[in-house]
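Need tokens for this chain, all 334 residues.
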Amino acid sequence: MTKTSLATPPPVALTEPWSWKRLLTAPVFGPCVALVLATVFFATQSATFLTGPSLSLILQQVMVVGTLAIGQTLIILVAGIDLSVGTIMAFGSIVMAKLAVDSGLPWPVAVGAGIATCTVFGLVNGLLVTRIKLPPFIVTLGMLNIAYALTHMYSAEETVTNLPAGMTALGETFAIGDTRVTYGSVLMLVLFGVVAYILGGTAWGQRLYAVGSNAEGTRLTGIPVDRVRLAAFTAAGAIYGIAALLLIARTGVGDPKVGLTENLESITAVVLGGTSLFGGRGAVLGTLVGVLIVGVFRSGLQQMGVGATPQILVTGILVILAVTVDQLARRRNR
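Here are the structure tokens for all 334 residues:
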């Protein structure tokens, strides 16, 4: 057998025949059931919950974290983790805003520079993990602090206002019946679709799963494991840059005080969506379901008059339950 033939293993998951057993054991099945049950529950508690405007608002509220979670999914699939997603996004948004407002650059150039900046952060994270062999947890924890400090130093602690209209266009809405939907929400859904296709329909996507499942075994087949991991971190950085643009579109300003809560929220969404923190198992569409679960719970609890602190409590319980289920599933499959 040649090295080339081993380097591109067939997408086994795509060739398996459909069956109820396969459906019930799919990582995304449990999160989908949880999402449906949560939606039904909150619909019984509020007459306005299951309406177009309410559901559109949930999409708007999760579009930034959802986009960040796409990048986080790529990294977790290769058995990594990124604690710096939110602060990298915040720095990217400040770069975009200040270049457009203070430096007077055309807004497409400023946006491109912001996305490129986030991509470089992802590349550096990947290089430290793959070349220096540092643990992803330590690397991204350090990068969290670096990006946070750079954001506050570059912005001088000031919010950037008077942004060009083009930079906030994704926050505009269009009508579907009596419901207003933001272009940013649509962009998030498109990104989920594109990444789902890449993961399920390309050799690179299959390699991400292979590296996350068994890095040493994958290396022995001739697949450049470090290169796959580096590409995952770099691609995730570019996606954080898109999230930075969505953040600006949603808030209308460049705010240096954002980004700290999104780090854990993105991990929460990935875990709730059924992706294993140990890598190699999961789906980005599951992450979409995880993001929606968080959005549904928060919106539903808000409509029931529950305060912010209990909402955080519920989110923490959901994360522990999801990780517990994942751990039990791994033990059963051994």
